[in-house]
Each structure stands twice: as structure tokens, then as C-alpha cells.
Amino acid sequence: MLSQLPMYQKKGAQAYCHDLSRMEDFCDYLNQPQDQIKTIHVAGTNGKGSTAHMMASVLQEHGLQVGLYTSPHLKDFRERIKINGKFIEKEFVVDFVQNHRNYFESHSLSFFEMTVGLTFSYFSKKKVDIAVIEVGMGGRLDGTNLIQPEFCVITNIGWDHMQFLGDNLEAIAGEKAGIIKPQTPVIIGSTQAETQAVFQEKARKMESEIIFADQIDNLGYTSDLKGIYQRQNIHTAVVGLSHLKGLKLHPEKLKVGLMNVVSNTGIQGRWQVLNDAPMIVADVAHNKEGLQYTLPQIESHSYGQLHLVLGFVNDKAVGEILQLFPHSARFYLCAPKIPRAMSIEDLEQIAQNLDLHHQIYPSVDTAYSASINQAQANDFIYVGGSTFVVAEIL
After folding, report:
1. Domain check: are 255 and 298 in the same one?
2. In angstroms, rounded to a whole number, what is the distance separating the alpha carbons of residues 120 and 133?
3. 8-17, 124-133, 370-379: which has the minimum mean pLDDT?
4. What is the largest distance, in Å, between two alpha-carbon atoms of the chain?
5. Does the CA dihedral 298-304-305-310 come out positive or negative?
6. What is the spatial distance between Cα 265 and Cα 370, in angstroms, rounded to a whole number?
7. Which of 82, 87, 299, 363 could form a disulfide with 78, with the two C-beta atoms 3.0–4.6 Å apart?
8. Residue 17 has pLDDT above 70, yes or no
9. What whole-number distance in Å separates Cα of residue 176 and Cα of residue 173?
10. Which structural domain, as residue segments, surrounds residue 381?
11. CA dist list (Å): 123 to 113, 117, 269
12. Same domain, 258 and 389
């Protein structure tokens, strides 16, 4: 699966599919497993993974068997497909691929299409009570967009994947609004002037109730997922679950679910503290909007020197992103081990143009080791810039 077929996370544009026909045919071949499960659909530029994990954890605390599909994975492919925090069994993956390999190859399925079909089949066979399904990219043309969910969530809209989704926020919002289904509630996490009308118009056409979560009083719940930026995700998750028919949200179970997201679901890479002295934090925020929430969290700590271990993929506005970080920091720049990585030569050029205090390293490991060797006990080391940098550290 990983080596022979296109994978957007590694190869970029060549893995992007411009319609859902292959996915529709595949689900038809699999006997429509997506129609045999109750689902919640979660899209957005930032926070969709955290929000999905929070909702799954709360649903688990209510005694349900909860499927959770997210992407990308950090270390193990099976992180993408879980039931109540447990990875899909290796045997199920192997059997699925062996049984359907001829179909994969004869229909030129993408990595993502295969994985989504596997997910739907697994959750259907395991008879989950409900599955939380995270969109891979965009929404309208995403392989997950064949489900008929109980409700949809769109966390927010930012500048990401513009070569596929559009070069303005309205266009990007239009792609993400593609998950809104007829007469199905949609929860929007963040009211944004540029995108509000796009969502309202789509919901009107679909005759669907639309709820802007940030316009509803915040009940003050907290989570074990740390970071200032999680506050909005917590509130979006709570507002979303309050619109799940047939579930009476129990305040104590809601509270416990939000405070045990890591242990219930196994989520990694969200403001994950790896060490205390020096403080080492890994975080998968990888675009301008995400980092604008993350940076105040760094600055809320007191430290001697800030060390930044950063690498990027080549479709990001890396110059703009690097300018967000404090220029008093020491930058340890590297490239993750994927074809889509921005080269260290290009990073060097950008860092020189910005006059950053930087050093270039041939790998994530060497950059990380150098930061540890140079840091004092009262310093702060931040690892990020790309999901793939965090994956190599973990």
C-alpha cells in the first residue's frame, strides 16, 4: 500500500483525485459498508484531528464502541483506524489487501482510496456504534465524502493546500462545505467574515441547520490536550456532540472524556511534552494559522533560550511561517525523510534572507540531537513545522 500506490502525504499533486467516481465504484464493490455505520464527519484547516479525537473519547465514556478514522499517521499506519483507542488488527489489514489487491491494481486506486475503503469495511464488520471520520483534505472531493453522517463539523478555514482547494478563503470554504449533507446539522467551529456566507448558503441549499459554535456560550470545559489553541476545539467538540440525536450528554462523562483524550484514543503530537528540563515539546501545527495559535503557547513559558527544530514540506509558505517565530531563537533546520520535503538548500536560502540564527542539518535526528546537546536545563526546545518532523522524533 505504502510503496506501490500514490500517497498525497508523500507525493503531493499526483495522488490527488479530481472526482469521487473511483471511490464510489470501490464502495459499490465492497457492498456499501459506509451505509452500514452511523458516522460523524469532521473537516477544517486546523484542529480537525484534535476535535475528532475529543468527540471519540467522550463517546467512549458514554459506553459506546467508537470507530475513529484520522490521517496522516505518525509512526504506524494502523493509527489511522481505531476502535476505542485500539489499532485495527494487522491481520485485518493484510487480509483486506490480499483479498482485494487485484481490484486495487486494475482500478489504479490511490493509497487514500484503499485506506478509506478498508476503514469503512472494518467499522462495518466490527459493528461500531458510531464512527468519527476525519476528512483527509478539503471535503467535496475527499474519499470520505460518501458517508451520510449524523452531523458534520468544519473547525475553521485557513490557507492550506491552495493548489487543490483554491487561492482564496471563500473558495477553500466552498470545498470544505462540500461535506454538508441534506437535512444534516453542520457545526462551524469559527465564525470568519470571509467564509460565513459560504457556509450559510450551502446549509440553506441543503436545508440543514447550521450552528456557529463560537457564537454559543462556552461552558468552560478543559482537556488533557494542552495548548491555548485547543480551547476552540474543545468547545466545537462539545457543541457538536450536543447535536447528536439519541445521545443524552452526561456532564460528568463529558468532562472525563475531554480529560482522558490521550489515554482513550492514543492521540500524539498535539503539544506533546517529551521532556521537562529542558522543556521539549513536539507539535504538528504546520501552517500559518495553526502556528499563530501555537506560538503564544511557547511564549507563555519562561525559558532561557528557545531552540526550534523545524522542517517543512515544499508546498508551504515557509518564509512566512519562519517569520512568525521569535528571531531571538536558534533555528535547527532539517528535512524530513519524504519526497515532498523542502530541501535543506532551499531552507538555507530562506533562513539567510531572513537573517535567522540558524544551522542546517542533513536529517531530523541530527538536528534534534544538536538542539539537545546545546540546550541548558532551563531552555525550551520546540519540534515542529511538519507532521513528518514530529513523526521522526516520536
Report:
1. no
2. 10
3. 8-17
4. 59
5. negative
6. 32
7. 87
8. no
9. 5
10. 272-393
11. 16, 10, 25
12. no
Going from the C-alpha of 13 to that of each of 188, 204, 377, 381, the distances in angstroms are: 28, 33, 43, 33
Q: Measured between alpha carbons, how far is residue 122 from residues 43, 91, 127 in Å? A: 21, 12, 8
Confidence of residue 162 (pLDDT cuts 50, 70, 90): very low
Q: Decide: helix, strand or coil at residue 223.
A: coil
Give the end of a domain, one of 210, 239, 265.
265
**Same domain for 147 and 292:** no
d(CA 228, CA 44): 18
CA distance 333 to 351: 9
Cβ(233)–Cβ(56) below 8 Å: no
In the DSSP assignment, the letter for residue 88 is P
The alpha helices in 207-287, defined as continuous H runs, are 230-241, 251-259, 261-265
Amino acid at 304: G
Q: How far apart are CA 255 and CA 221, in angstroms?
A: 7
Mean pLDDT of the chain: 92
Yes or no: say if 155 and 45 are a contact pair by the CB < 8 Å rule.
yes
Q: Which helix (H) or strand (E) holds 104?
A: helix 90-106
Q: What cell was used for 118?
A: 478498508
The answer to pTM > 0.85 is: yes
Q: Angle 175-54-255 (CA atoms, 0-180°, nearest 5)?
A: 140
Task: Pull the grid cell for residue 8.
Answer: 498525497
Specify whether the CB–CB gap between 58 and 171 falls below 8 A: no
Query: Is 146:33 a contact under the CB 8 Å cutoff?
Result: no
For the domain that residue 248 is a member of, what is the CATH number? 3.40.1190.10
CA nearest 50: which of 25, 68, 77? 68
Average pLDDT score over residue span 198-227: 95
pLDDT at 39: 98
Tell me the CA distances in angstroms from 306 to 96, 325, 365, 390, one per residue in order. Answer: 47, 10, 18, 17
Q: What pLDDT does 277 receive? A: 96
Using pLDDT thresholds of 50, 70 and 90, give the confidence band for residue 4.
low
